[in-house]
Amino acid sequence: MNLKQQFKEGLITNNPVLVQRIGMCSTMAITTTLFNGIGMGLSVLIILTCCNVAISALRKVIPNDIRLAIFVVVIAGFVTIVDLLLQAYIPALSASLGVFIPLIVVNCIIIGRAEAFCQHEPIGPSFFDGIFQGFGYTVVLVCMCLIRELLGSGTFGTGIFEIVNGALNVTLDGSAAGIRIFPEEFGATILIMPFGGFLTLAALLAAMQYALRKSDEKKARLAREAKVEIPAPAEATAKEDAE
Amino acid sequence: MTETKKAKGGNQIIRLALILFLVSAITSGVLGLVNMLTKDRIAEQERIKTEQAYNAVLPYDGGYTEVAFDQEAWPTVDSISAAGEEGWVVELTFSGAQGSITAAFGISSDYTITGASVIDHAETSGLGAKITEQDFTDSFIGQSEGMAVTKDGGTIDTITAATISSRAMANAANTAIAAVKALG
Amino acid sequence: MNVITIALGAILMNNFIFSQFLGCCPFLGCSTKVDTAVGMGIAVTFVMGLASAICYVVNVLLVQLGLDYMSTLAFILVIAVLVQFVEMFLKKSVPSLYTALGIYLPLITTNCAVLGVVLLNVQNNYDFIESVTYGITGGLGFMLAIVLFASVRERLQFADYPESYEGFPIALTSAGLLALAFMGFSGMSIT
């Protein structure tokens, strides 16, 4: 499996959220501001990559009967490390994501990748699988945040960007107010609420299904045309013969 | 035949348990190490957060001194600290819309609010989390007991779509003043 | 009084699925039939109640030993063992329920509602009674949500919706509408 293929799988054809449909709890719960989305996405990316490498390295030692228990212990270990580091160095993110950081332990993306990929593959591919799958997850989170934040409260990049005295200010402590696109009163606040999480994810999934179907149809049509082309000359000559 | 099988099964279980134990032990060891490295910093961050909140609600250079109060009568109050003759800072933990909120209120010697600051909360970001914003906390300044959110006919701003969080803050502010008054 | 507030909050106002997004995977995965949804709801309620009780004790121990940073690891191990135990118990004593639940039982380990309730118990500083109440009623809230959703979903096949919404997207949209209905409960308070 080459890198390009793995990248495409993580981002589109085997995207953890949009295609494998796992890890949806956090996708819907925390995507209310860009700060949360990027923070959560990167945390999962780091944990996923570490777990993938660790499990891949241990894959010959782990007995099959208790592999799930060992996966869970390894994952919980890395999650706790990231949790402690966040509390120490980015407390704003830790406070904002709250219980959803420790809940990465039961995020099916990580245990799913361990089960489906890392326990058979060597360390190299597992490492890149972690990065690309994590990236695919982050991209979906960011899309959700952008849509919900813009339509819900009329801002862009709350917690990361803000305009102070006409200059763009980038902060990492989550205190930035965001760039206002339109007045808050015009926003559909319902999109920030739980309902908006379900609705936005449904729309994204539907868009993905639409895109995948179109691409399948196109492939099928191309294949059909390619098939038709071969017998076509024979038919033509047959017709000519008849004439 | 069955006996040897059983013995083998027993060995297998012991082997599995050992491996699991080993993995858990290594993980715990690493966690202990990380905890040791981050513990002080986390405690420091907590302290800074609380200190900042205290300074924001009632600036005082002389150092805050904690005073005793009736914990039975005021279950939501965590601590009351006196800032010399200037007033008190009351720290409370109470339930908001999603989880508990910890906030500090500064109260002057004539029992009006000098400032409010949220230390910790679990409200939805983008909605209830707006209780941390200055626009909201500033609306407490100068208020005295009997505060209510605008939606209930009071003077505290109600955050759009986060009435519960706003109301919880207003109630907590009232509790803070009442608790200080009860000090006598 | 506090117990009633916690119970009603967990079932209606702060429903695990519709307000906190905990346990969405089994909620979407096991809700195509009402029967399985009921079974799943019962199993999850049982495990959540037990996990709350055991993890409360575990947490007290960890805090006394100064090891509270290990709590996530300890909780997930307790839950995994608990689910295994429930599985063995059901297999021996109630085989009918065991076969009905089938593969969903081991999946409860990775149900974030179970770990979530335990973590929230710690975060909200609940005592033993409150923890168990929160666990059981949180499970009941999950059951209410999944059964309601399954009954809606059974009727979805008669609905007319855009082709691209086939499957998950339309299920999510209907779940969203249920969440909207549950939002009506928010703001209710018992004093």
Short description:
Chain A is mostly helical. Chain A has nine helices and four strands; from the N terminus they run H-H-H-H-H-H-H-E-E-E-E-H-H. In chain A, the strands form two sheets. Chain A has a two-stranded antiparallel ribbon with strand order 1-4. A two-stranded antiparallel sheet of chain A has the order 2-3.
Structure, described:
The complex is a heterotrimer of chains A (243), B (184) and C (191). Chain A is mainly alpha-helical and 243 residues long. The model of chain A is unreliable at 234-243 (pLDDT under 50). Chain A is globular. Chain A contains nine helices and four strands, in the order H-H-H-H-H-H-H-E-E-E-E-H-H. In chain A, helix 3 (34-57) packs parallel to helix 6 (108-118). Chain B is α+β, with helices and mostly antiparallel strands and 184 residues long. Chain B has a domain at 57-182. Chain B is built from three helices and five strands, in the order H-E-E-E-E-E-H-H. In chain C, 73% of the residues lie in helices and 0% in strands. In chain C, helix 3 (34-64) packs across helix 4 (71-93). Chain C is mainly α. Chain C is globular and about 60 Å long. Chain C has helices at 2-13, 24-29, 34-64, 71-93, 95-101, 104-107, 112-123, 128-156, 168-183. Chains in contact: A-B, A-C, B-C. The B-C interface holds B 24, 27-28, 31, 35, 93, 95, 97-100, 122, 163-164 and C 14, 19-20, 69-70, 73, 77, 120, 123-125, 186-187.
Keywords:
heterotrimer; A: 243 residues; mainly alpha; two-stranded antiparallel sheet; 9 helices; 66% helix; 5% strand; C: 191 residues; 73% helix
Taken in chain order, the helices and strands of chain A follow as HHHHHHHEEEEHH
Give the overall shape of chain C.
globular
Shape of chain A: globular
Radius of gyration of chain A: 23 Å
Strand order of the largest sheet of chain A: 1-4
Pair of chains with the largest interface and how many residues each contributes: A-C, 43 and 43 residues
Helix content of chain C: over 70%
Mean pLDDT of chain C: 86
State the distance separating the first and last CA atoms of chain A.
54 Å
Helix content of chain A: 55-70%
Low-confidence stretches of chain A: 234-243
Fraction in beta strands of chain A: under 5%
The SSE order of chain C reads HHHHHHHHH
**Which ranges of chain C are low-confidence, i.e. pLDDT below 50, for 5 or more consecutive residues?**
none
